[in-house]
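writing this on my phone so excuse typos. first protein, seq and then structure
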Amino acid sequence: MQRSNHFVRVLLVDDYEPFRRFVRATLQARSELEVIGEASDGLEAVQKAKELQPDLICLTSDSRHSMESKWHIEFPDSLKTRPYFS
């Protein structure tokens, strides 16, 4: 799969579909972002990340904690929640 030089490829992860729709719409308003997929749980997130190879995975803090406890997916402590684009 050839990657575009013009976009940051984003995978959205959240268990609440209306929130994913909102985030997708917000991100798609930015010309440099391309939402390439969505996942609703940790297992699906891992599968989609392997398949789609996103540049950025966007997940809420709640999703992160849920995945760590429910799916035993560990995220490095160095991951911080902060705005990536202004």
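second protein below, same order as before
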Amino acid sequence: MSDQKNQPVATGLQREAARRKAQDHFTAADRRETEVRQEIARQQAATAAQMAKLRALRLAKEEADRIAAANAPPAKPRKKKSI
């Protein structure tokens, strides 16, 4: 109880300054959070684009391999070695 008597009473200006300081802190935190979310979204978009590119390349290669295999002459059967 004696501690409360020694504490100065905050004036209206002090309260307003403390409120402004807290609001600035939360505003900065919100801004950082927004920037982080935007960076994550950019990274996800880049990853998705890279995956789409690699998938297209893989499908093109598989199609080329399929066409090459269809046009290739049939393999000759191997002869068994006699002992």
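The mean pLDDT is 88. thats all i got for now
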